[in-house]
């Protein structure tokens, strides 16, 4: 169970938090309820109908100090959290989507610098949603990773 699922099931009204974040165009309150997102330093910026997720350069996220490069698990977690937030915002879910499947392709090293992700909901059924996630650093066309995720939505 992801951190946001655990936190939300305990005492939070997910729909109200998402609605408030969307209305204020400030997703920091939403991310503050996700311990892992806080730990890695994840941020969200909205440009019209598009959300861009940011993972600022942070020493604690380094997995290979020789390069230095971000840990692959941090990149995967960042991309998964991005997809969850994307679904919550654009589908106005009342519960946190549950991950069914997540497949990631690492394309190149993610160096110790700001990292970005964008998500595209490719299929939205009544119970299942599919999301593609692209992750880059200095250029959107030069991806460091790409992923596909399937979520159960309620």
UniProtKB/TrEMBL annotation:
Q: Does the keyword Ion transport apply?
A: no
Q: Which residues form the Thioesterase domain?
A: 70-141
A single GO molecular-function term is:
acyl-CoA hydrolase activity
Alphabetized UniProt keyword annotations: Hydrolase
Could you confirm whether the keyword Hydrolase appears in this record? yes
Domain of life from the UniProt record: Bacteria
Q: Which PANTHER family match?
A: 1,4-DIHYDROXY-2-NAPHTHOYL-COA THIOESTERASE 1 (PTHR43240), THIOESTERASE DOMAIN-CONTAINING PROTEIN (PTHR43240:SF3)
This chain belongs to the protein called Thioesterase
Species in which this protein is naturally found? Shewanella colwelliana (Alteromonas colwelliana)
